[in-house]
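Q: What does the assembled structure look like for these inputs?
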Amino acid sequence: MSGRPAITDHPVHPIIAERWSARAIDPDRPVEREKVLSMLEAARWAPSCFGDQPWRYLVWDRFEDSEAWEQAAANLAEGNQAWARPSPILILAVAATTFSRNGKPNRWGQYDTGAATENLHLQGVELGLVVHQMGGFDPDAARSLFGIPDDFEPMAMIAVGYPGQVADLPEGYQDSESAPRQRKPLAELAFRGSWDTPLT
Amino acid sequence: MSGRPAITDHPVHPIIAERWSARAIDPDRPVEREKVLSMLEAARWAPSCFGDQPWRYLVWDRFEDSEAWEQAAANLAEGNQAWARPSPILILAVAATTFSRNGKPNRWGQYDTGAATENLHLQGVELGLVVHQMGGFDPDAARSLFGIPDDFEPMAMIAVGYPGQVADLPEGYQDSESAPRQRKPLAELAFRGSWDTPLT
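A:
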């Protein structure tokens, strides 16, 4: 696990408290296919509206398909490439915009895909991996490069690998690996019956 | 836990395998506030784009604010009211459409809120509760009734309570409490480098 659990105000399961988004990844250690499959399997069992399962994942493994992996890495924003290039695995989370059962708009496609990817993220951290989701990539280029259909929306690129050395990160990214983890207070996030009435 | 774990093709953490969306809820047993707070705390520690934390939760407790709870229950689609009315707790998950840091559109508001709610869901099941998300409710009515601002989008109503008797559910909802749990095969959900190329 991460050794950097959230300091929570109320008890939560360790798998949730210990999930975070590290950046230091070992460039030389591949990720076993079985671990990648367990992450995807965790995503598979998420809940979804009408059980439609609107999530899809594209997976690149630098140790298996280095050219294809390079296409995916080059699709990342420069700021993300700066730290994420050591990742042996990149995964793109894609959300359906329509229901597979009837082709009608699916208002929950992105919401449900976020849920599935949280399962994937938790499972990865549980297996001793660094998992870090990124919004900084080019979704239009990804769509044409990787053949993503019009009724699916690329949502997040995900860097996956074994933990590496913080000292090997670019300087601007080193502090965040040990800075205190912070969140808004619950009073700003949870309300009692109507907006802005704090629950507690 | 649920006693109805997913039959997974690859190993996943028990908290993920044992999460499901039951419907039979005990109408007479309140949910301790501390458990509700642990669920919300689990949501709080989810990842989000730029750490913006776009999720908000409205909470109703039938044993504390029965009139307010009734407003929330009446907002559910009829098919959901049929089984969800025993719930002591209803929670509405709401997603920001803009970043709180700069007011610009947040393309990940719903995705991140889905992730946070998956944490909430997992934590609830871990605490021995039934948790069931519903898309069937009236988001426009919810917006005006509960004072939800224009730059937030109501996403899911969530029924929470202790497990009840399956025999007390309306007849059409009883079978699903014990039917085999199913998902699409991983080959339809996870691809190797480009769309529709199965990973395995």
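The first strand of chain A starts at residue 55 and ends at 61.
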